[in-house]
Amino acid sequence: MNGTRAALEVMIPRDRGVIIQAGSALAWRSIPLQSAYCGAKAAIRGFTDAVRTELMHEKSHIQLTMVQLPGMNTAQFGWARNKMDQAMQPVPPVYQPEVAAEAIYSVIQRPVNELWVGKSTIQSILGQVFFPRLLDRLMVKKAWEGTVYRSAKVVRPTGRPVHAGARQSSGPRPFNDGARRKAVTISADLPGKVAAGVGVAVATMALRALFRRSGKRR
C-alpha cells in the first residue's frame, strides 16, 4: 500500500502509469493454515479496487491492476515464520516464478482490472463466487493436506521456544519437482462477458419460441 502511494506521487502529476499488485487466488478464496496471508491479500484487493475507483472519479489515466497468482515455487515457505510441527508448502499445483513474471509483463502491455493466472486460480475464484459452501468443505481436507510439506524437515533455530521462528531449509526454488512452466490466464472481465453472452442467447431463444407459439395460435 505504501508502495502504491509512492508510485502515485510520481504518476499523478504525469497522469499516466500502470501500478501492478502481485495478488493471489487466496485474495478471493481463503484456505486453512494461511489466515494471515489470505487476510493480507484480500486487504490489498480491497485497497486496489477502492483506489482504482477514486482515480476513475478524477478522470485519471493511471491504471491499477492486480495479478492473482497460484502457488509459486519460491522461497516464501523457507523464510516465513512457521509455528506448525510440519513444514509448509503452497497448495499444488505449483508454478515456476517465470509464470508470474510473464503474467505481470503482459498487464504492463495491456492493463486489465484483474488477471487470473493458472487453472487452479480460475477454479478457486469462480468456485468461491458460485459455490462458496462447497469450497468450504473441499478446503477442510484438500487445502489442509495440500499445505503440509511431508517430505521436508522443519528446522528450528536454537535458543528459541519450539514453536517460534520455525522454518524449513530450502533453496530459492524448493518445489521444483512437478512445478509447471506454463499457465492459462484470463481477465476477470471474461466470465462476466461470457455470462452476458449466454444470457443474451437464452433470451433470444426464448423470444423466438414465444413468437413461434403466437404465430401458431393465430
UniProtKB/TrEMBL annotation:
<feature type="region of interest" description="Disordered">
    <location>
        <begin position="159"/>
        <end position="178"/>
    </location>
</feature>
<keyword id="KW-0560">Oxidoreductase</keyword>
<keyword id="KW-0472">Membrane</keyword>
<dbReference type="InterPro" id="IPR036291">
    <property type="entry name" value="NAD(P)-bd_dom_sf"/>
</dbReference>
<protein>
    <submittedName>
        <fullName>Dehydrogenase</fullName>
    </submittedName>
</protein>
<dbReference type="GO" id="GO:0016491">
    <property type="term" value="F:oxidoreductase activity"/>
</dbReference>
<dbReference type="InterPro" id="IPR002347">
    <property type="entry name" value="SDR_fam"/>
</dbReference>
<keyword id="KW-1133">Transmembrane helix</keyword>
<comment type="similarity">
    <text>Belongs to the short-chain dehydrogenases/reductases (SDR) family.</text>
</comment>
<keyword id="KW-0812">Transmembrane</keyword>
<dbReference type="Pfam" id="PF00106">
    <property type="entry name" value="adh_short"/>
</dbReference>
<feature type="transmembrane region" description="Helical">
    <location>
        <begin position="190"/>
        <end position="211"/>
    </location>
</feature>
<dbReference type="InterPro" id="IPR020904">
    <property type="entry name" value="Sc_DH/Rdtase_CS"/>
</dbReference>
